[in-house]
Amino acid sequence: MGSTSEFNRRDLVKRAAALGIVAIPAMSVLTACAGAGGGGGDKVEKGTKSAKNPLAVNESAGLDVVIFDGGFGDKYAKAAQGEYTKAFPKAEGKVKLSSTQKIQSTLQPRFNGGNPPDLVDNSGAEQMDFGTLVSKDQLTDLTPLFDAPSIDDPSKKVRDTLRPGVLEMGQFGGKETWVLYYAYTVYGVWYSKGNLQKLDAEYPETWDDMLALCAKAKKRGIAGWTYPGKYPYYFPFSLYPFIAKIGGAEVLRRIDNLEPNAWHDPAVKDAFNAYYELYQKGYVLKGSPGLDHLQSQNAWAEGKALFIPNGSWVENESAKQIAKDPNFQLAVGPPSSLSSSDKMPYGTLWASGGEPYIVPKKGRNSEGGMELLRIMLGKKSSQNFIEQVSSLTSLDGGTEGITLPPGLASAQQVLKKAGGNIVNPRMQDWYVALQKEKIGVGAIGEMMAGRMTPDEAIKKIQKYADDTRADSSVTKYKR
Amino acid sequence: MQHGKYRFIAGFLAVPLAIYAVFVISPFVQAIYYSLTDWTGLSSDMKMVGFDNYARLLKDSVFWSAVGNSVTLLLLLPVVTLSLGLFFAFMLNVGGRRRKKAVIGGVRGSGTYKIVYFFPQVLSVPIVALLFQFAYNPESGALNALFKAIGLGQVQPDWLGDPQIALWCVMAAMVWANVGFYVVLFSAGMSSIPKDFYEAALLDGANRINTFFRITLPLLWDTVQTGWIYMGILALDVSAFAFVQIMSVGPGGPDYSTEVLPLYVYQKTFRDGQAGYATAIGVSLLIVTLIFSAIVMRLGRRERLEF
Questions:
Q1: CA B182/CA B89 separation, integer angstroms
Q2: Residue A25: what pLDDT?
Q3: B189: nearest CA in chain A?
Q4: What's chain B's Rg over C-alpha atoms?
Q5: Secondary structure letter of residue A259 according to DSSP
Q6: Of B25, B34, B158, B197, which to mutate for an interface test with A (greatest number of A Cβ within 10 Å)?
Q7: What per-residue confidence (pLDDT) applies to A28?
Q8: Which among A237, A254, A316, A365 could bridge A262 via Cys, Cβ 3.0 to 4.6 Å?
Q9: Could A441 and B252 be called an inter-chain contact, meaning their C-beta atoms sit closer than 8 Å?
Q10: pTM of this structure
């Protein structure tokens, strides 16, 4: 007879030790790419500067571009790549464009090894931390690009063709501009005009109307709001501009600057109370705390809820579901007025840049990287982007002569109505962990699920903000 | 001659030892080294900071939630999975009604069950996690629909959205995904237990419960112990990471209720650009793993039965 099993104890000890070693795979992944030392850094020679080549790109040098393959895909970048090789025929075949969803794990070894690509769309869940990149001197200052003449009109500099606020977003406390945000996103309360018409309603301009409309919808078994409870940091898309509208843009500035007691501003409390009322009165779609972004958008597209806090990418992301209802008529609204004493007028809107592009400092052909951006900021590439992914670009204009899909057309309208009243809170770029995991999941998500009162949520957020301010490992910014 | 013999042995050992040193020992040493630096993960520019990272760990409340949740998984996951695995395997192999000729046998249809139990093992972890995520969808998921159908319309939990039960939801998915493997493993172990033991027990009038605790479990102990270590490792490392990352709110939430150590390592490295700090968390994960292995080895020490 044999033994009870094929193992004996000594084998087991060895096995346990071996398994224990396997159990820390993260460490070996990390170490595999570390410490490769400087090296690299040998740049290609500059080309000759001319009217057609203001950035002095080496005409025959290769170019290495990495695109985030997310909601916008990479087709628009490939089209721009075609334009680049048209302008520099000698570079034909030497322009390498790759796309990935895993920006950081793909590029980390290359940054550590000192041979990064020439242009990176640093976006998505694996976005590399900008503060770290800037403080470790890994990025090229894009000022030459902004001072170069634009591709469509040589008498205008690139910086004068951009939408307001885009350039400033790319600065991190200094004069240099490190990042170009290519897409232009309108945040707010997204809804279906068709579904509102069924209730004989239009977008409510005051919060009282909002509550009344939600009450009306509730009687018909429709929820007022839904949201992705798995990512409750979607709420700020309509909540932050609401705060600014009530208490002025100054409140958001203090919050961004992590000032003590910034969250204890009465405007924050009013805004939180108003949203909490949605929960208390049962106007939030049941089960929302357990939905992810696509599930909540589906429920909303099916007409189970009227409103969802979101950004302009929703039109592309939920295109299929929205198309099922031919009378949907996607639209976006700015935050409703809480009272007549709000500091900013109705129309105050959060709009800002998305898809952050960077030109790594140690890339071989930085001029080429900037030149490709200059091409992308031209009217032709910009229109191509708008048509392909129904989102605006940072180029001011560029929409003439093309029919915009309903959501984008509505975004364009609210932008126009907002005029100068555009706010741009920076928490989500500057302090990602604080914004998403702590404020979003830890406080706002808990409040909207009814597990925390507004007062408790605000107190908790203020503590999170204070902790971040005191944490020396987090780079701080001011605006 | 002696001299030649050692050289001979060394010749065989050199290659595996070198591979072991390069791929196992050196990452260990490097990891400990990097945990003492302020490495960002995005630049080769770093400096030594001594034990700063570890001092920070002690004060980091998220880290302690992660330790708590990882240890909860470590304690409960093996117990639940292995108990279920043992129970099913016993029913499939020994627990059936007595039939003519055969001394022992499984419940009716045990052949089919064996295959069905193994199904989840064929699916990859992300698919299992996604399937469960759909089932847990509070708004249109299978579970809440089931509750409605059987007249429990008032009971509509948020599942993954509720910090009280989120970790349990994730754990249930992990148990489901893994139990089939242990059914097969224990079935194999049970089939090597001699039938005459059971025959003797039956003649003495032992019922199923007695048979299980007096014969099957003691003779299967080594297999159970191996399974225990496998499950423990699984609760601590990549598998837990994958399930939590895909299923949970945040991920890691709500309110850090599903944050586990490997996920925290990932977030600190790939989101916050603090690879040095992340490595320190990795080292603490190593310590937890070693303590676990030591305890299991000590508790599991028993006299071996030879038969």
A1: 8
A2: 42
A3: A5
A4: 24
A5: -
A6: B158
A7: 41
A8: A254
A9: yes
A10: 0.80
In terms of Cα–Cα distance, which of B156, B48, B167, B83 is closest to A288? Answer: B156
Burial B215-247 (b: 16+ CB within 10 A, else e): bbeebbbbbbbbbbbbbbbbbbbbbbbbbbbbb
Report H helices in A233-281: 236-247, 249-256, 266-280
**Least confident among A117-126, A127-136, B98-107, B141-150:** B98-107
Domain containing residue A219: 186-351+424-470
Per-residue pLDDT of B202-253, as tens digits, reads 888 888 888 888 888 888 888 888 888 888 888 888 788 888 888 888 788 7
Contact: A229, B39; criterion CB under 8 Å? no
Q: Are residues A224 and A302 in the same domain?
A: yes
Both A292 and A197 in one domain: the answer is: yes
Three-state secondary structure call for residue B304: coil
Per the CB < 8 A criterion, the answer to whether B254 and A446 are in contact is yes
This complex has an ipTM of 0.73
Return the pLDDT at A13: 46
In angstroms, what CA-CA distances link B124 with A466, B130, B181? Answer: 42, 10, 13
CATH number, domain of A68, equals 3.40.190.10
Which residue, among B42, B132, B216, would best test binding to A if mutated, counting the most A CBs under 10 Å from its CB? B42
- For residue A125, what pLDDT is reported? 74
Q: Does the CB of B219 have a partner CB in chain A at under 8 Å?
A: yes
Identify the H or E element spanning A307.
strand A305-311
A244 neighbors A252 (Cβ within 8 angstroms): yes
Is the Cβ pair A111, B225 closer than 8 Å?
no
Residues of A in contact with B299 (CB under 8 A): none
**Mean pLDDT over all residues of chain B?**
85
List the structure tokens of A228. Answer: 């992705």
CA distance A292 to A284: 15
Q: Which SS3 state, helix, strand or coil, does residue B60 take? A: coil
- Please answer yes or no on whether A24 and B285 come within 8 Å at the CB atom: yes
- Cα distance between residue B10 and residue A281, in whole Å: 77
Q: pLDDT tens digits for A365-387? A: 999 999 999 999 999 999 999 88
Number of domains in chain A: 2
**Strand partners of residue A423:** A350
Question: Is A54 within the bounds of a domain?
Answer: no
Counting DSSP H helices and E strands in chain B, the numbers are: 15, 0
The DSSP symbol for A181 reads E
- Residues A296 and A180 sit within 8 Å (Cβ to Cβ): no
**Cβ A4–B140 below 8 Å, yes or no?**
no
Residue B40: Cβ-neighbour burial (10 angstroms; 0-12, 13-18, 19+): buried
Tens of pLDDT, residues A39-98: 445 788 888 888 888 888 888 888 999 999 877 888 899 999 999 999 898 888 889 999
Confidence at B99, pLDDT banded by 50, 70, 90: low
- pLDDT on residue A247: 94
Q: In chain B, what residues touch A24 (CB-CB under 8 Å)?
A: 31, 237, 282-283, 285-286, 289
Q: Is domain B61-299 classified as CATH 3.30.479.20?
A: no
Chain-chain contact of B43 with A132 (C-beta, under 8 angstroms): yes
The residue extents of the domains of chain B are 61-299
Q: Tell if the CB–CB gap between A286 and B138 is shorter than 8 Å.
A: yes
Please enumerate in sequence order all residues whose Cβ is within 8 A of that of B296, keeping only pairs 6 or more positions apart, or say none: A16, B225, B228, B229, B232
